[in-house]
């Protein structure tokens, strides 16, 4: 199995609300607005939004509700940019989970939650290389 | 906020078991085996494994247990390769959630669950372009 991820699908309760939130972050969806799944090209992979009940069935899991042990992160180039993205996300209808602050691992980060409660860490990690195209390299 | 994802962290109950599973898939971890977080470079982003309780606290969420509405997918180049990856994953200690089969969207996919119950869809989507470097492009 090659060492890569092609698609991350977030289960949502209200597709219009979820699409609107990510669009308010400045993201552009692909495909028609009437589709029952929304795709965003995100670098070399795709982020999808889909009905959470259908996603659970398709994923062969039982949906217990709430958080299930997956957190996404969006790395930026400075602590100030962490605060800017958190402000954008809360203005777009997200919830601030943790304000931007220095972290135990030597960086600076905060958390916002999307309208379905999916957490996103917004982080500046001085030890990782963030390329011009947004890709991240360890070390 | 730029349209990209830097890091996906999976919360795990037993880090050695989880690291061993992904290594048995053929993935190579970065950093020392003694670290309390395991990183895998996965194309332009990073997949991390970390203690689920610590991840919940760090993510400003309550952990309700079980699945929480996030499914990852790994796209491959043919239906036969879907079956091969599912066989690799079950041989490595994963659980088959759904055997490879034709899907309602015109592709072929199956599901395996890692030792912590995180579902991975393994898919062949004839409508998406899979580049030689493994990156995926819509359309």
From TrEMBL, chains A, B:
SUPFAM superfamilies named among the record's database cross-references: Glyoxalase/Bleomycin resistance protein/Dihydroxybiphenyl dioxygenase (SSF54593)
Domain of life: Bacteria
Coiled coil ranges: none
Positions of the VOC domain: 4-125
InterPro entries: Glyas_Bleomycin-R_OHBP_Dase, Glyas_Fos-R_dOase_dom, VOC_core
PROSITE patterns in the record: VOC
Protein name: Catechol 2,3-dioxygenase-like lactoylglutathione lyase family enzyme
Organism phylogeny: Bacteria, Bacillati, Actinomycetota, Actinomycetes, Propionibacteriales
């Amino acid at each position: 199995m090659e060492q890569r991820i092609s698609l991350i699908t977030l289960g949502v309760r209200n597709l219009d609300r979820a699409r609107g939130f990510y669009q308010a972050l400045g993201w552009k969806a692909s495909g028609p607005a009437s589709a029952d799944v929304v795709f965003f090209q995100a670098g070399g992979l795709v982020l999808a939004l889909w009905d959470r009940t259908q996603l659970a069935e398709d994923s062969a899991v039982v949906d217990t509700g709430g958080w299930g042990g997956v957190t996404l992160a969006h790395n930026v180039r400075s602590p100030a940019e962490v605060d800017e993205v958190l402000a954008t996300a809360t203005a777009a209808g997200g919830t601030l989970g943790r304000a931007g602050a220095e972290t135990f691992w030597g960086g600076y980060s905060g958390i916002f939650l999307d309208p379905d409660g999916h957490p996103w860490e917004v982080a500046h990690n001085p030890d990782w290389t963030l390329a011009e195209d947004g890709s991240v390299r360890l070390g």
